[in-house]
Amino acid sequence: MTTDTSGSTGTTAPPRVHCTAAADGSLSFALPDTRATALVLKHRRTGDRLRLELAPDAVLGAETALAEGRWDVLADCGDDGERSVESGIRDLRTLVDRLPEPASAAVAVRIPYPAKDGTLAIRSWLRAPHAEAGAIGFAPYAMTVEGRLYGTGLGPGAVVEARLRGTPGVVHREPATGGSGAFAFTLPYAPLAADGITKQAIWDLWLLPSGEGEGEGEGEGEGEGEGTAAVRIARILDDIADRRGIYVYPAGPADTGGRATAVPYYTVGNDLSVRLDPAAG
Amino acid sequence: MHISFLLHNGYGIGGTIRTTFNLAETLAEHHDVEIVSVFRHRDLPVLGTPAGVTLRHLVDMRKTSATFDGDAPEHARPARIFPRGDGRHRQYSRLTDARIGAHLKSLRADVVVGTRPGLNVQITRQARRGPARVGQEHLTLDSHSYRLRREIAHRYPLLDAVTTVTEADARAYRTRLKLPGVRIDAVPNSVPAPLIPAADSTGKWVIAAGRLTDVKRYDLLVQAFAKVVAARPDWRLRIYGSGDTSGNERGALRALINELGLYNHVFLMGSAHPIEPEWTKGSIAAVTSRLESFGMTIVEAMRSGLPVVSTDCPHGPGEIIADGVDGRLVPVGDVDAIGDALLSLIADDELRRRMGQSARENAARFDPARIAERHEALFTELLARGGPGGSRSPLRDAVHRTRSTVLDGVYGIRYRAAAVLRKGKSS
């Protein structure tokens, strides 16, 4: 009638990992009660691996670059092979409200988070330059964004460029302003809805710090001598690996005609986009 | 001492499970402790088996298990021993009546501890004479249905002790029920010391955590925060938690945040497990409930070094927070007072630091070791009172059975009268 489940902690439970983010950007991982000898970070898409020895904690130094994307954290348990680990306590207080040096050429962000199944993963971003979105405001039929810029300066012809997702070449530009290390812009919705909206449309927001003369490139090094390439606007300087559902903004009418509504939102990768939907009915 | 807990389901997640596990694990350092879970629906307990404690079950609800009990004919028939007034009655059955009965009749423990009203009642009806009988109440007398209060009034005289989590609730049991000879003690829930360093009072965030249900009144907190932002736009608010079966205020709160233009300042974070590291990202905690049976999150925040601004609602907050020392107590439902109390702590860095420090020191009284000592002292006293061979005499039981029936009638009339008055008011 009864069964005992007392005693051992069980061999089937995955090792539990606690991690701590230090102010310098390094992450340390502690695995109490396991025989693991190292942690292995594995890039979910490329399969790239990075091994961190346990001595006794595993440390991912601030100077160690981690390619952008999602990394699964595995424990090397010797003869038992590599095992997923359970996400334990994540002490990420130093990541909250991070303000990198304004002069930083590159911004590296690593946020440990629990995947859907409770296992530990790390979301990494590597941006150089980086445009960090801050407060988002609203005016009639328009949104405003204030942010900080790292690794480049804003030229006189700086613009924000909305790119229609899935349709290369369809863009809309508005001027961007700002002093040292800052940018701001107002994006009216009406031009995004100008051709009439029959189905949902997503516009991704990019900052072109030195203006319009640089084409559609997204890579580094493009337009050398003419200024910096387009920078995807994102919000990554805190402890939130996925802002969807948390940083949520109100939808508003896109124009006086009431044919569409527009709403800014953060994507699964914490990049800033605008969604337009045809008005209901 | 051999201590046997009787728990609804030790394999799930919830406040009663957590607090029972904390207590059992601490008591197990010096005693022989078992937790008997009426139901088992998973192979492993979500919260892990408490160290040194034996955990076993009476009814196997795992469909994949060879000993699955869920399709037993007896399990389809409604329970007769487990009282109907307990909200979990529908999960109980003739099968649970019999299994719990067999367990209680053969139990060779010094103390048997029930952890919800239905199980406390079942202990009074089925436990063999011998073990001291303790009924724990994790909710409050107020929150029980009329029917359950009657069943409790009728059966609890056959317990040796009732423990509540607040003094306020203990007073209710002492004054509103006649339980002669039953010791009624308030013993608060325990919260372990955090595993990470306390907050350092510099984070410009206010933190709240709890289910997004109506009783938590987060709408008041959001409104109060509009006042905070007007004076101090550099401060922001995080609310952790999600809805449950009793409701989900998320949509309504989202609409309120938009209406007040607080989308750059107030964030609904969803659930976080464990919650412990989230407290340390802020430097003030807020609770705006209209009711808190105890106030577990208040103690958690204090143990992490945060002063707590809380409504002085029944039952717990006023017994946890020393107003002006380690937090602030404000009138229930008073948006201005909540906003002012938050601003008073935001405006004064030194006050916030000092109150956070006091919060951490004062919350140490809820440490599992200190709380377990109080339960242990109670158990020891009950055993001494009862003497060897049992704490109850047949005569005392018989007397109380008769008396409780008489008093039950009086209690019932009073409640019917109250119900009529309430009905008159609302129509």
TrEMBL record, chain A:
It comes from the Bacteria. This is Transferase. It comes from Streptomyces beijiangensis.
TrEMBL record, chain B:
PANTHER family: D-RHAMNOSYLTRANSFERASE WBPZ (PTHR12526:SF627), GLYCOSYLTRANSFERASE (PTHR12526). It comes from Streptomyces beijiangensis. The lineage of its organism: Bacteria, Bacillati, Actinomycetota, Actinomycetes, Kitasatosporales. Residues 200-361 form the Glycosyl transferase family domain. The keyword Glycosyltransferase applies. Keywords: Glycosyltransferase, Transferase. Residues 69-88 are annotated as: Disordered. Residues 13-191 form the Glycosyltransferase subfamily 4-like N-terminal domain. This is D-inositol 3-phosphate glycosyltransferase. InterPro entries: Glyco_trans_1, Glyco_trans_4-like_N. The keyword S-adenosyl-L-methionine does not apply.
